[in-house]
Design a protein that fits this description.
- The complex is a heterodimer of chains A (about 550) and B (about 300).
- Chain A has about 550 residues and is α+β, with helices and mostly antiparallel strands.
- Chain B has 2 domains: about 70 residues, no CATH class; about 200 residues, MetI-like fold, CATH 1.10.3720.10.
- Chain B is globular and about 85 Å long.
- Helices cover about 80% and strands about 0% of the residues of chain B.
- Chain B starts with a helix and ends in a 7-residue tail after the last helix.
- Chain B has about 300 residues and is an all-alpha fold.
- In chain B, helix 5 packs parallel to helix 13, helix 9 packs antiparallel against helix 10 and helix 11 crosses helix 12.
- The chains are: A alpha+beta (about 550), B mainly alpha (about 300).
- At the A-B interface, helix 7 and helix 13 of A face helix 2, helix 3, helix 5, helix 7 and helix 11 of B.
Chain lengths: ~550, ~300
Amino acid sequence: MKRRLLIPVLSALALAMATPAMAESPKQGGSIVVTYKDDIVTLDPAIGYDWVNWSMIKSLFSRLMDYKPGTAELMPSLAESYDISKDGLTYTFKLRKGVKFHNGREVVAQDVKYSLERALDPKTESPGAGFFDSIAGVDPFKKGKSKDVKGIAVVDPSTVKFTLSRPDATFLHVMALNFASVVPKEAVQAAGKDFGKKPVGSGAFMLSEWKLGQQLVFKRNPDYFQSGVPLLDQITFQVGLEPMTAILKLEKGEADFAGDGIPPAKFLQIRNDPKFKDSIVEGGQLQTGYVTMNVQMKPFDKLEVRQAVNMAIDKQRIVKIINNRAVPANQPLPPSMPGYDKTFEGYPYDPAKAKELLKQAGLEKGFKTVLYVYNVDPNPRIAQAIQEDLKKIGIEVQIKSLAQANVIAAGGKAKTAPMIWSGGMAWIADFPDPSNFYGPILGCAGAVPGGWNWSWYCNKELDARAAKADAMSDPSKAAERMEAWRGIFTDIMKDAPWVPIFNEQRFTMRSKRVGGADALYVDPVRIPINYDHIHLSGN
Amino acid sequence: MIRHLAGRLGQAALLLVGVSFITFILLYILPADPARQLAGRSATPETVETIRQQLGLDRPFHEQYLRYLGNLVQGDLGRSYTQKTEVAEVVAARLPPTLLLMAAAIVVELMIGLTIGVLAALRPGSRFDQGAMIVSFIGVSTPQFVGGILMLYVFSVQLDWFPVGGYGTFRHLVLPAVTLGVLGAGWYSRMMRSSMLDVLARDFIRTARAKGIPETRVVVVHALRNAVLPVIAMIGIDVGLFMSGAVIVESVFGWPGIGQLAWQAIQQVDIPIIMGVTLVAAVAIVLGNLIADLVAPFVDPRIRLR
């Protein structure tokens, strides 16, 4: 059985639904100024992996799959349609015809294969190489035992077929990652290592100027395959401006969007200023801030102790400490992630009950422990709040405030850090699928030296359930799969390896000149904003 | 003279090797792992290991350093870890703005510093003198981050005289140059004041006055000319001060110089860039001091080059 999606119809429908701002029928044209603190590191889609270049790369390049603007819903992009075999092991993508790279050449199936193999080639040093492990033949290719990835086959110039070594329900998300962007071989070879400074893609914008350390200019790609997109003619990225300076620039009308957000020191003032009421868009993030408890270390090997800590921390107060820039959390998944359980209540704040649980664990006199924390504000302040809360139930917490790398190193070393506050290093999903929130940070695979599972929690039964959920690649089973994930994450909380503290909110500040649906300014995938679909207001 | 110069250049080269060695050690013992940093948050340990090998970070320290030095001798500063571009290219793109900013800051500090210094010296102990010295002291001690933001707020946002940060025109240059220059002006006003007082107390000034030369002429022609030279000779040393000051001022004003580049590279543990910037800064400081040394004997014949 094959499922062929009526892509053109669906995507047209999706676009119409996803951009409610269309109601004001934005006119195409105009230009905006965006500021960032740091110079853009690279625009090479195989390399770029930070908050600044992530959505810039999305606008310069296209991938087989993409997301509906402002949402976490997948849609075909460079692909016109796709088939998934019944066993979930074969994905066949039909490419759109006539799509052109910025250099004028048409995009063909061979480019897809080349681009992925480039990202997988160890010489490229791509941080994204690990995402493609489910494609058959990746391992021998990475180790240099095979000249190409056998699992990626070019059937004809407009058809590419992937064979997986195991069913992977997240595969379509993986094909929407920046690392899966399609690049023209001739441009990559011409630029060599400098491709990140001379990017050539087939996205909505093309790079027209880059003055190192000063500014970059994106110009509208007139041949972009999606008609009417992008809406802006030009985006100028001014780099090197401190967030504080950027806000002043925005206030004065010299910039339209402060890329690094509102600096904490100015947050309350700006948030409470009626002048900026319409300039700030609030949205969720695929992020959770949590405290890990190392289940391999005493006394956190006892379930009651972990539960007690969960009930002793006043999350509401912590949220207040960071000026309400977050919402309290009760489970690992953030609310904007599919699979989040709205009905789950988690552990209530109940210090009396917590004390009782400690008593049950035979620790009524309390104990001493160490909390590792990244030494950049507001994390030490949050750690102090946790310290005060835990003192109330008799737990003496010593705070170890260290550089980020030291905390990460301690977390990845067995029996080293009893507790870690994840702030500033917290897990942020690479793609909007709950699976991305499990394996590395809560599954057995991450509980290894150098891993990110800082609780060292390894539940074989949950691992099996996770593997089963991720094998449900049949799109018609999507709901069932989400249900399975929902259960996994709430069941994890029964074992309480974490104290989920809060989910950070995003606050985007924009000028009055720009318009478009609010969702585009807190796009869950195009972080921080969706450059392709925003437009000038009032025209 | 030429022998002296050759000797000094030889010393400078040794000094640079020393600087590179110390910086390299510091970066080596840094707990931050560049490979980990590059690989990003969801990389498998395997990916991190591959990247480490690619960068040669798995090699022992002496091997890494000798390789770096070997490349350096051939004029190769290496490639940035994060940007993958040539360090020389990145640094070269950032150097002109920093040099421009420094030159402008030197003009500003001399204008402010010398004027205040001379005026204060003419009436030592007066209210102006005391006030000027207090202001200088504040200028020297104000954190540049605070000073910069304050300048932006007053002169750009409130008064709308200058653009809020950026690079390109003269108007962009004024505020960062003044912020940086005010810091130096504090030193210069104090140096100028004492140098001027020193000269004004000399015999030849008394002689000049006794000859009935008008006071303005005594001050401007006789005293100032003699007093200003030792002060000007210090400019070379400023280079070091400005190199460190530039890191903050450039960040506040979005000035695309090497200070800003250094700050970004440090956050990203981009070792080749950090090394490159450190070496360029060291060269600038060494040259600045060398120039100050070479100029000194011309200004004050009592100093001899040996």
